[in-house]
Specification:
single chain, 2 domains, five-stranded mixed beta sheet, about 60% helix
Length: about 400
């Protein structure tokens, strides 16, 4: 399939028409670049100067779409112009072709053309002066420099500025894209963090409410009902307080701008007592020293969620919570009775296991949970130092 030539730019067509008309207006009253009696004029007919003018003007539509082709044809026309009485318009149009060849041409052409123009400028000045032994021969080099080197250098300068501006625009776009990606990642990470906090803080209380409300509805015993209602009230009040703290963190002007203190491992006893109040037989064996705050929060939440899962899913039996610190890591193990096929006492979505796994992964630790015989065991190891320490 034949390759179609792009349409010339509108401005290039205007330059061509304007240059041609200007040259004709100069030709009509006989304004030429050289006198017909000049020894260098070989084609003395006045109309001969119109031939290179028309050729150079016809090259102007190529200045953007085929800049090198336009320059080569224009150079041949300029050489032809030197053996006629000449036209100033031809020279002016040629300088524009030289400028456009550097500005719109290929990178290789943009590098080579200024060097070639500079070499011809030096050659055009030195050789005539040496052959004629007349310093006035240097004026030929000056003329070549004005016609070729000056527009080529100007084109190179403008091209460098345009490329620098384009590079700056691309860098700005990349910076904006990276900033947007960072913002999205930060928002996603914050949403995930808040989801974990909301689930870990509230799920325990809601699970206890669901289980004890079921017991209160299913058993026709006033004492059991009152005990269940007391537990429900206690968990609902505690859950509501936790929700208010979270809302106070998220909403400015809520009246509770101070964030709630992060739970620590010193609060495990109170957490276990709450689980026992909800009917679990929990044994706590915690042996650890000083633990960094992020590890302490993650460990607390993992134990809290494991007890919540035990409340919802575990069979009758003891729940063992063990924490051990050794070799620069904190080990967590929560084991509860397990009997396949038992229906959960409260519905679950599986988000708790996901949240615990995420907490361990964020600290560079490990997490696993699953049945082992008649026990369901949650194991997590959390490093006590970061990689940069």
């Amino acid at each position: 399939m034949a390759r179609t030539l792009p349409r010339p730019h509108r401005d290039d067509l205007l330059i061509a028409v304007g240059g041609l008309l200007g040259g004709v207006l100069l030709w009509v009253p006989g304004i030429h670049a050289r006198m017909a009696a000049d020894d260098l004029v070989l084609w003395r007919a006045p109309w001969a100067a119109l031939v290179p003018l028309v050729v150079v003007a016809a090259c102007e539509p190529l200045r953007r779409i085929r800049p090198r082709t336009g320059l080569l044809i224009g150079t041949a026309a300029l050489v032809l112009d030197t053996v006629t009485v000449g036209s100033i318009a031809t020279v002016v149009l040629y300088t524009d072709l030289m400028y456009a060849a550097v500005l719109y041409g290929s990178p290789a052409s943009a590098r080579r053309i200024p060097w070639i123009a500079g070499f011809l400028t030096v050659l055009g000045g030195v050789v005539p002066a040496a052959l004629w032994r007349d310093p006035r021969g240097l004026l030929i080099g000056v003329g070549v420099g004005v016609v070729a080197l000056a527009p080529a250098a100007t084109g190179a300068l403008v091209r460098d500025h345009r490329e620098a501006a384009e590079a700056a625009r691309l860098r700005a776009g990349q910076t904006a894209l990276l900033a947007e990606m960072d913002r999205v990642q930060a928002v996603t990470a914050e949403r995930a963090r808040m989801a974990r906090e909301l689930h870990d803080v509230v799920a325990n209380h809601l699970s206890a409410i669901a289980i004890h409300s079921t017991a209160a509805l299913s058993l026709d015993d006033e004492r059991t009902t009152r005990e269940a209602l007391a537990v429900i009230r206690e968990n609902s009040v505690a859950g509501l307080a936790e929700m208010r703290r979270l809302i106070g963190i998220l909403r400015d002007g809520s009246g509770d701008r101070e964030p709630a203190a992060s739970p620590t491992l010193d609060g495990l006893d109170a957490l276990v007592d709450g689980a026992r109040a909800n009917g679990l037989d929990v044994v706590l064996d915690a042996g650890h020293g000083t633990v960094p705050a992020p590890v302490e929060l993650a460990a607390y939440r993992i134990v809290q969620e494991s007890l919540t899962n035990a409340l919802k899913h575990a069979a009758e039996g003891r729940v063992e919570v063990v924490l051990r610190q050794e070799d620069g890591r904190l080990g967590i193990r929560v084991s509860s009775a397990y009997r396949p096929g038992d229906a959960p006492r409260a519905p679950g979505s599986g988000a708790g296991l996901t949240g615990m796994r995420e907490r361990a992964a964020l600290l560079g630790g490990t997490f696993e949970a699953g049945p082992a015989g008649t026990r369901w065991t949650v194991r997590a190891t959390l490093p006590l130092t970061t990689e940069g320490d």
